[in-house]
C-alpha cells in the first residue's frame, strides 16, 4: 500500500524526470552543433519524415569530422573545433549521402540521431571514404 508520503515522493520524482529530459536533449543538441543545419529538432525530420535533409556542405566546426578512431567498444570522433567525443560503437551509425546536399568528398559530417539523443551518424560522400577515415587505435 502506498502512503501519502510515498505518493508525494513518487510524484516529485516523476516531475523531476519530466523536467530533466528537455534539458538533456538541449545539451546533446548543443554538443553536436546546435540547431543550425539540422540539429535534433531541426530539419532532420526524424522517423516521421517532414522537413528537408540538412545541407552537409555548410557545416559548423563542431559538425566537421576530422578523425575517427576505434578502440575496443568505443569510437572517438574528433571534429574541426578540436573536440573529441567518445561514442559507444552501437550508438554510432555510418552513412553516405551522394546528393547535392551531401558532404564534400573527404569532409564527413556528424549529426545527432535517435530519439533520446544518445546516438550519432557520421555521413560520408562515398563508401570508400569510411575505410580511409576510421583508424583502429587505442
Entry keywords:
single chain, 138 residues, alpha/beta, 4-stranded mixed beta sheet, 3-stranded mixed beta sheet
Summarize the structure.
The protein has 138 residues and is α/β, with parallel strands linked by helices. Helices cover 25% and strands 27% of the residues. The chain has one domain.
Helix-strand layout with pairing:
Layout: H1 4-31, E1 65-71, E2 74-79, E3 84-88, E4 92-96, E5 109-113, E6 119-124, H2 128-133, E7 134-136
Approximately how much beta-strand content do the residues carry? 25-35%
Oligomer: single chain
What's the tally of helices? 2
| Poorly predicted runs | 34-45
Rg, Cα atoms, Å:
18 Å
Q: Secondary-structure element order, as H and E?
A: HEEEEEEHE
The biggest sheet, with number of strands, parallel, antiparallel or mixed sense and barrel status, is: 4 strands, mixed
Order of adjacent strands in the largest pleated sheet = 3-2-1-7
User: Can you give the mean pLDDT?
Assistant: 83
The tally of domains stands at: 1
Question: Helix share of residues?
Answer: 10-25%
Number of E strands: 7
Supply the helix-strand structural class: alpha/beta
Q: What's the end-to-end separation, in Å?
A: 52 Å
Shape: elongated
